[in-house]
Design brief:
By secondary structure, the protein is of the alpha/beta class. The protein binds flavin-adenine dinucleotide.
Length: about 475
Amino acid sequence: VTYDVIVVGAGWAGHCAAIAALESGARTLLLEKTELYGGSSAMCGGSFAFAGTDIQLENGIKDSEDALLADLTETGGGLSKADILQAYVDKQLSTYYWLKDLGMRFDRVAISSNQSVPRNHSTDPVQALNLLHDKALSSPRFRYLPNCGAKELITDADGAVVGLRTDSGEDIRAAGGVVLATGGFSRSEDLIARFAPFARSAKKMGGFGNTGDGLKMAWALGADMLDMGNVSPTFGAALVQPDADMQDPPPRILQIMYKGAIVVNKIGKRFVNESVSYKKIGRECMSQPEQAGFQIFDRQVMSQSAPLPRNVNYKRALEAGLIYEAETIRDLALKLGVDADNLVNTVEAYNQACDNKTVDEFGRVSLSSGFGRPTKIDQGPYYGYPCVPGLTSTFCGLATDAQARVLTVFGKTVPGLYAIGELMGGLHGENYMSGSSLGKGCIFGKLAGEDAANRAGCIAEVAS
Ligand SMILES: Cc1cc2nc3c(=O)[nH]c(=O)nc-3n(C[C@H](O)[C@H](O)[C@H](O)COP(=O)(O)OP(=O)(O)OC[C@H]3O[C@@H](n4cnc5c(N)ncnc54)[C@H](O)[C@@H]3O)c2cc1C
């Protein structure tokens, strides 16, 4: 069978590319290596970074494309690719409304890492995936193959990608090209050892099929890679991860410091300015005793718990035994196995700085990236969340142009080959702005799906 577009990997980015290809009139095949679609996208917090949306306006949040570009540029530390950043900024709002037109609901907006204003738009990621999957299945031009891994790419005499070979040895052709959406490599010991050796002891998270297959397939064709040296574990992974198919799972990761928690080590001492990126805190935590961190907070912060996004559902984490509760800081320390005298002193010193009686030991003056004022931890009951750095995502990968077309090490496009989602490098640079991974998945997924369909000469569906 010949298709117009083959999409490899049925996570968030792959589904967006498939829908865009179908809307552009393409006969589209979506391959998934594992039994269930979803990958990391089904496990994630469900927060998308968009700027200038209707929900932000309704909530009185002033955001703009300029502010988004400034945050992404600063976060990338000069290492992000300018054309990729510009494409994100230019296309994000139309992509947001495209998703809403497809039926997606964004419930609320919250602040997170490296955002100068609240910009994380939250969804239930599993519902969002199901919505797109059902939408794709409703098209007669769509075929979905689970338990079918892509193994290698097939090229013509000119080096253009014209199809792929599956794990079972079947060759499948695509007139418009192959869109790689295989996610990162957070489950590949081999690639972690090569590109992020210091993160080998971090907790492995992310989709179980995310072993860097797309990276290797494109690598074999001379593809370039970006941001490989900037892989970093994320701070705040729960010690016990929920089963993949659990109903109403507790959060896999929590960053309560952006709502006002402090972060201490086993000795009961702070070791970082908690308002900085969770990747930076993750790196710092790797060198603390037992690589353990404890987020300490009070009733005032707990009252900000909400069902969505999952990563602010502190009450669900408390109920699941991931967060500990006590009437005093001393009792909390004993429950957590943290040095009690030190923790009492640490909280007292922090509260003094919040009252401006002293200067904060680590220079913390905001909740996150300059947003919000730190608040005292003085309203019992008190809470503690023991956690470790987790390798949720690898945030680096194949070099592409602004249309998600893969580039070789010599800067030439590989005709017919696209890389989207976590597999795509060049956006994050040195660091990571929360919500930009799901954001880039849909923005560049849509662009890639449309471009590949165009290449095949497809004619877009006309809305009736
Ligand atoms: C706990 C957690 C919380 C997170 N929270 C957020 C958040 O709130 N906001 C945000 O922006 N990002 C978040 N992230 C990161 C984000 O979820 C991922 O970067 C994003 O979902 C990746 O989407 P993707 O479609 O590129 O890959 P995935 O969703 O991982 O999908 C890739 C798919 O490809 C399949 N595959 C792999 N190899 C092959 C092959 N050879 N053939 C066929 N199929 C293959 C995999 O099995 C998988 O299903 C979080 C990640 C985790 C783990």
